[in-house]
Amino acid sequence: TPLSQIRNFSIVAHIDHGKSTLADRLIQLTNTVAERDMKAQLLDAMDIERERGITIKANTVRIDYTAKDGLHYVLNLIDTPGHVDFAYEVSRSMRAVEGSLLVVDATQGVEAQTLANVYTAIDADHEIVPVLNKIDLPAAEPDRVKEQIEDVIGIEAHDAIEISAKTGLGIPDVLEAIVTRLPSPEGGDPDAPLKAMLVDSWYDPYLGVVVLIRVMDGTIRKGDQIKMMQTGAKYGVDKLGVFRPAMEDVKSLGPGEIGFFTGSIKQVRDTKVGDTITTEKKGCEDPLPGFKPSVPVVFCGLFPVDSSEFEDLRDAIEKLALNDASFSYEMETSAALGFGFRCGFLGLLHLEVIRDRIEREYGIELITTAPSVVYHVYMKAKDGADLELIELHNPADMPDPSKVDHIEEPRIKATILVPDEYLGDVLKLCQDRRGIQLDLTYAGPRAMVVYDLPLNEVVFDFYDRLKSVTKGYASFDYQMEGYREDNLVKMQVLVNDEPVDALSMMVHRDRAEQRGRAMCEKLKDLIPRHMFKIPIQAAIGGKVIARETLSALRKDVTAKCYGGDATRKKKLLEKQKAGKKKMRQFGKVDIPQEAFISALKMD
Ligand code: GDP
Ligand code: MG
Questions:
Q1: 18 is in an annotated binding site
Q2: Are 405 and 381 in contact (CB under 8 A)?
Q3: Is 64 helix (H, G, I), strand (E, B) or coil?
Q4: Is 482 helix (H, G, I), strand (E, B) or coil?
Q5: What is the 3-state secondary structure (H, E, C) of 312-333?
Q6: pLDDT in the model for residue 302
Q7: pLDDT tens for residues 143-162?
Q8: What is the rounded CA–CA span in Å between residue 339 and residue 305?
Q9: 63 CA distance to ligand 1 centroid (A)?
């Protein structure tokens, strides 16, 4: 195919605005997939993605389309992940294509992820075609949304295409616009040394690692010996092909083309998104610019509820890591929780997805400790020496504070879009989380606020709080901004005078008392009463800053309540037995699994 008849594009949208449905319609209308094989949201392959309606791994499909000009075009759609945790992957895969369809729900308008994703596309020099979706709904306001796109994003929108991905209305116009309004790839030379970008990779149980690539220059052929320029790894190309969306073999891929190869690559870890692929002999000299590996920013401990399942957990984690290079893990032992793993994630959603998969696909019940960010702890140095930096992944490992010079924490720049009437609550929430307001503007009836916030204040329950104070009407997105010093201390929790490591956390000194009190009150409600009195304390160093006491259980209470009814009593006992499994013993005290998460939520 000549370059002039290739179009590579992605679809950018806020979650639920109809990206996957539109992709399905494009595939369907071009008969890329036989009708009987069509299932909703074809591109969201993994079950969990389908259930949650999110696309995590970038997927791709090659579509053949005969345009109104009578020519045959090859359209390559890359479906990028739609969530902030995967921002780096999104920004890389955007560099593999020349244009984007900007899908905006005509009943909702521009949201935070619309902005974040479209700015990534603009950064990648994309031509953008705005598409207003869901115009079949009575609440659709295409004219207002067009205006909003122009005001807020600053791109031309009068010729936005009005569609319903659900009914199929307007889809032919989208296909024509891809051909007429998006540029073809710039002229690469098929005979030049190979230069291809690694766009994505994943583990396939039959083929090993599958690598998605975009060829910039030169030609890749089956049987080639290739190397990855950043990692230095070398492989033979066993299988080369394209997705339609099922795999279809091809003999070669030339400039402008998107496809995949396999080559007995065992681990996804060996394939870094953004790496440059060339041939081992007569390869290109310079790699593609801007490569940086994505690093985990949120860490937490995962422990099996049933400690005999530790080996099963190890197995599950190793298998998941094969398919997810951005997820890290190492063994951890906790006095309270026994053997488990300290795991690193790109963000909170990433954490949730991995945790859910372990529980569902491997049937292992987990205790998840409080998520923590990575702190930079600078140790005091002898005269003249440089301060030693320790990357603290786990508050339990905090060194002796008297030896610490200062601590830095990661900060983010958060963008929140919210209807006017909730603005006050959002500002208060951000303020409470130690935010610094950077900007406040209006986009029609919505306000857009930009805040500098500590990531640590966001990883836990910020999304939940934001959703609840705005009744779900706010949208949120963030990017990492780097590290800054602050007055941070480790707060410990003692239950019945025993420190519970899994509940340790780093807090700002000024918030410590408040946080400690809230934590003790929560735990008092979460821990069941025992036959003895249980003190619950929060402490910094040796100093107790908050305290609650859980009173002792009177022996006759259960007997009295459930004395008469035999079936009810049996049910209660069964429930207690099930509950018991989810409890962990700390000294003499049983703490239920939920306590580790719930105790850290702030109201
Ligand atoms: P994504 O998160 O951007 O991939 O969004 P989806 O394609 O999963 O769509 C989100 C929801 O909106 C689903 O329930 C779709 O059925 C629905 N939806 C998508 N397009 C339309 C449309 O044009 N009209 C209506 N009424 N619903 C739509
Ligand atoms: Mg989707």
A1: yes
A2: yes
A3: strand
A4: strand
A5: HHHHHHHHHHHCCCCCEEEEEE
A6: 93
A7: 999 999 998 888 999 999 99
A8: 10
A9: 21
The secondary element (H helix, E strand) that includes residue 548 is strand 543-550
The pLDDT of residue 48: 43
Judge contact between 11 and 41, C-beta under 8 A.
Answer: no
Q: Is 19 annotated as a binding residue?
A: yes
CB 88 within 8 A of CB 273: yes
The span from the CA of 399 to the CA of 541, in Å, is: 11
* Atom number in ligand 1 closest to CA 13: 3
> pTM value?
0.71
Backbone angles phi, psi at 113, to 5 degrees: -75, -25
Among 599, 574, 575, smallest CA distance to 586 is for 599
pLDDT on residue 491: 94
Distance (Å, whole) CA 260 – CA 78: 12
Q: In what order do the strands lie in the sheet with 127-133?
A: 59-66, 72-79, 6-13, 99-105, 127-133, 161-162
Which ligand 1 atom sits closest to the C-alpha of 167? 23
78: which residues sit within 8 A by CB, 6+ positions away?
Answer: 8, 9, 10, 58, 59, 60, 93, 96, 97, 199, 258
Residue 45 amino acid letter: A
* CA distance readout (Å), 78 to 5, 182, 210, 557, 586: 17, 14, 15, 62, 50
Checking 25-31 for CB contacts under 8 A at 24+ apart, the result is 25/165, 25/168, 25/171, 26/63, 26/75, 26/77, 26/171, 26/174, 26/175, 27/61, 27/63, 27/245, 29/168, 29/171, 29/172, 29/175, 30/63, 30/64, 30/65, 30/75, 30/175
Q: Where are the alpha helices (DSSP H) in 493-598?
A: 512-526, 557-562, 566-581, 594-598
- Is the CB of residue 113 less than 8 Å from the CB of residue 101? no
How far apart CA 499 and CA 522 sit, in angstroms, is 17
Q: What is the per-residue DSSP string for 439-459?
A: EEEEETTEEEEEEEEEHHHHH
Q: Which residues contact 187 (CB under 8 A, 6 or more apart)?
A: 3, 255
- pLDDT for 347 equals 78
- The reply to whether 20 sits in an annotated binding site is yes
Residue nearest (by alpha carbon) to ligand 1 atom 10: 16
Name the residue with tokens 């609550």.
Answer: 425
Is ipTM over 0.95? yes
Please say if the pLDDT value at position 583 is more than 90.
no
Helix (H) or strand (E) holding 59: strand 59-66
Is residue 342 pLDDT above 60, yes or no? yes
Instruction: Give the closest ligand to the alpha carbon of residue 138.
Output: 1
Q: ω before 183 within 30° of 0 (cis)?
A: no
Closest listed ligand to the CA of 165: 1
Whose CA is closest to atom 6 on ligand 1?
A: 18
Q: Are 465 and 433 in contact (CB under 8 A)?
A: no
Known binding residue 16? Answer is yes
Ligand 1 surroundings by CB, under 6 angstroms: 13, 15-21, 41, 53, 133-134, 136-137, 164-166
Place of tokens 């890591």: 321
For atom 24 of ligand 1, the residue with the nearest CA is 134
Decide: 329 and 209 in contact? Cβ < 8 Å. no
Amino acid at 207: L
